[in-house]
């Protein structure tokens, strides 16, 4: 059963799981540090503002601005902003619809918030857009914090077409156009070869089938899972790639999206699992009874950790990539004085170009790994155990 | 971790869920399944075509071998026929010779028999003539003897000469 290739895949999976944990830990640590240093900075800032040392203040605010930009980019938003002019405070983009369920359906355009500058009052309830999130506030728009600086205001049930949702819909439409086009070429018989752009898609479909589905699930069962694997692969791949364009998507870098994807894999695995899988999970055959009791919780935990690792891996890799690319672009502004304008631009440009190439690889790799592991988990759940007879 | 939980947006999750359902099931019906089936059908077609070509090739080889076998058989048959014909011809010639010889011998024998019988007839005829001549001579002699003795002997002599001439 376990061929060399499969074991290699497993090894790769283990390495990537581990690597994502590290990168996740790093980002987490960084963000914690960032929070701490931010707090320190703000204290220092106020002190220094009192002392009125203008130069230092200017530099600090620029670094802070970069940090704000990155967090703002990584977070979801209620409008699509392509370009913003800070001098005049103007944003160029378009607003998106806000859909709230809070004592009835409330639909309005996000332009009513004017990028957080205005409060919106609907049916006697005031809403405030604060740090890319909508909170319920009192009429004055007061935001309350707990001791860890988290907002304690209540959030309404929010089904808004946010920037991420809009990007997701855009990508879905692209996928639908691309693949119904490809499907159409086969209408006149399977030997009708696709032309144009579809020609590039067919090898990728074959790649998903021959490198992921068939080796992991098996030749007689793979077909049932192809719609899911293809959907996940192309959705993640396209979202990752579009995330590298100046459109500024960060869909796969948001935990809600990866959680949903991982949940789908979890359900696909466990709804298609056969008797053997459940038996191996809950009452491991071939081991003594005390071991069976010991193994069951471990196996159950393993089944839960698998989708969790899928979720965190994709999220962390894409988030880290976007943060670093943004950080490198920010070199141009932050290091302007140390390296002169030209030098800073050159360094920032070179480094971010290099990193974007790396990110293109990561975009493909993460889509590959997610699909690969999904098919591996499905394959484990539907595998027929030939050695089963030996246990009884 | 708290930040992550804080960042979790139920709305985005909901939309992702809906979209993924749409992509998996609706696109599954209209794109993924037709694509996968078509690719499979094409591969099956290619395998079949290759197998058919291989079969055709094998059949061609078989046919060729068959043809050669038939040709060899025909050639052998022709040779056998020719040989038989030659044998028959020789047989016929030999038979004809034997028959001719037998016929010839028969003819010769017949001729001989005819000659013998003719000869016998001739001898008998001769004997009859001789006897009749002798009787005639004797008759004349007797007649002459009865007339003249000298003439008689002269006549006998003369007669004898005649007989000799005859």
TrEMBL record, chain A:
It is found in: Cell membrane; Membrane. One of its GO terms (molecular function) is proton-transporting ATP synthase activity, rotational mechanism. It comes from the Bacteria. It is a multi-pass membrane protein. The keyword Cell membrane applies. The chain crosses the membrane at residues 165-183, 228-249, 255-273, 314-335, 347-370. Keywords: ATP synthesis, Cell membrane, CF(0), Hydrogen ion transport, Ion transport, Membrane, Signal, Transmembrane, Transmembrane helix, Transport. GO terms for cellular component: plasma membrane; proton-transporting ATP synthase complex. NCBIfam families: ATP_synt_6_or_A. Key component of the proton channel; it plays a direct role in the translocation of protons across the membrane. This is ATP synthase subunit a. It comes from Myroides albus. The gene is atpB.
UniProtKB/TrEMBL annotation, chain B:
It is a single-pass membrane protein. Residues 46-91 form a coiled coil. The keyword Thylakoid does not apply. One of its GO terms (cellular component) is plasma membrane. It comes from the Bacteria. The chain crosses the membrane at residues 12-32. Keywords: ATP synthesis, Cell membrane, CF(0), Coiled coil, Hydrogen ion transport, Ion transport, Membrane, Transmembrane, Transmembrane helix, Transport. It is found in: Cell membrane; Endomembrane system. It holds the Pfam family ATP-synt_B. GO terms for molecular function: proton-transporting ATP synthase activity, rotational mechanism; proton-transporting ATPase activity, rotational mechanism. F-type ATPases have 2 components, F(1) - the catalytic core - and F(0) - the membrane proton channel. F(1) has five subunits: alpha(3), beta(3), gamma(1), delta(1), epsilon(1). F(0) has four main subunits: a(1), b(2) and c(10-14). The alpha and beta chains form an alternating ring which encloses part of the gamma chain. F(1) is attached to F(0) by a central stalk formed by the gamma and epsilon chains, while a peripheral stalk is formed by the delta and b chains. F(1)F(0) ATP synthase produces ATP from ADP in the presence of a proton or sodium gradient. F-type ATPases consist of two structural domains, F(1) containing the extramembraneous catalytic core and F(0) containing the membrane proton channel, linked together by a central stalk and a peripheral stalk. During catalysis, ATP synthesis in the catalytic domain of F(1) is coupled via a rotary mechanism of the central stalk subunits to proton translocation. HAMAP family: ATP_synth_b_bprime. Belongs to the ATPase B chain family. This is ATP synthase subunit b. It comes from Myroides albus. The gene is atpF.
């Amino acid at each position: 059963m376990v061929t060399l290739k499969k074991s290699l895949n497993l090894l790769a999976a283990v390495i990537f799981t581990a690597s994502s944990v590290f990168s996740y830990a790093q980002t987490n640590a960084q963000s914690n540090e960032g929070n701490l240093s931010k707090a320190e900075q703000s204290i220092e800032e106020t002190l220094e503002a009192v002392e009125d040392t203008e130069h230092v203040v200017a530099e600090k605010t620029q670094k802070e601005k970069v940090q704000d930009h990155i967090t703002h980019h990584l977070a979801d938003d209620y409008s699509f902003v392509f370009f913003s002019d800070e001098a005049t405070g103007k944003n160029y983009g378009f607003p998106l619809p806000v859909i709230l369920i809070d004592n009835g359906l409330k639909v309005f355009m996000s332009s009513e918030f004017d990028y957080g500058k205005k409060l919106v009052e609907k049916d006697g309830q005031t809403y405030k857009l604060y740090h890319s999130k909508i909170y319920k506030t009192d009429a004055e728009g007061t935001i309350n914090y707990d001791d860890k600086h988290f907002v304690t205001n209540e959030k309404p049930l929010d089904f808004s077409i946010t920037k991420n949702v809009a990007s997701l819909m855009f990508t879905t439409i692209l996928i639908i156009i691309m693949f119904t086009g490809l499907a159409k070429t086969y209408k006149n018989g399977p030997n009708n070869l696709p032309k144009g752009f579809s020609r590039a898609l067919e090898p990728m479909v074959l790649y998903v089938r021959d490198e992921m589905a068939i080796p992991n699930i098996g030749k007689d069962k793979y077909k049932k899972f192809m719609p899911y694997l293809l959907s996940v692969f192309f959705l993640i791949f396209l979202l990752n790639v579009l995330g590298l364009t100046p459109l500024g998507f960060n869909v796969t870098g948001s935990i809600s999206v990866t959680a949903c994807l991982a949940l789908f894999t979890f359900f696909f695995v466990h709804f298609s699992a056969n008797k053997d899988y459940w038996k191996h999970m809950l009452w491991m055959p071939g081991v003594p009874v005390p071991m069976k009791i010991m193994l069951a919780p471990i196996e159950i935990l393993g089944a839960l950790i698998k989708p969790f690792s899928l979720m965190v891996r994709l999220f962390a890799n894409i988030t880290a990539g976007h943060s670093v690319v943004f950080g490198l672009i920010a070199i141009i502004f932050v290091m302007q004085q140390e390296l002169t304008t030209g030098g800073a631009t050159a360094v920032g440009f070179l480094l971010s170009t290099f990193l974007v190439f790396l990110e293109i690889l990561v975009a493909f790799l993460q889509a590959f790994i997610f699909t690969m592991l999904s098919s591996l988990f499905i394959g484990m759940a539907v595998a027929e155990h030939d050695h089963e007879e030996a246990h009884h | 971790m708290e930040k992550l939980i804080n960042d979790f947006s139920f709305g985005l999750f909901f939309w992702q869920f809906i979209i993924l359902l749409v992509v998996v099931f609706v696109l599954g019906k209209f794109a993924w399944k037709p694509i996968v089936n078509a690719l499979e059908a094409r591969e099956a077609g290619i395998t079949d075509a290759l197998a058919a070509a291989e079969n055709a090739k094998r059949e061609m080889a078989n046919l060729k071998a068959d043809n050669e076998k038939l040709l060899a058989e025909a050639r052998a048959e022709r040779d056998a026929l020719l040989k038989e014909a030659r044998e028959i011809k020789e047989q016929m010639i030999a038979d004809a010779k034997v028959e001719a010889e037998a016929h010839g011998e028969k003819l010769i024998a017949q001729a001989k028999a005819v000659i013998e019988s003719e000869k016998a007839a001739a001898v008998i005829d001769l004997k009859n003539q001789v006897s009749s001549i002798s009787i005639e001579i004797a008759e004349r002699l007797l007649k002459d003897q009865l007339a003249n003795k000298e003439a008689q002997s002269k006549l006998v002599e003369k007669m004898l000469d005649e007989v000799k001439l005859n």
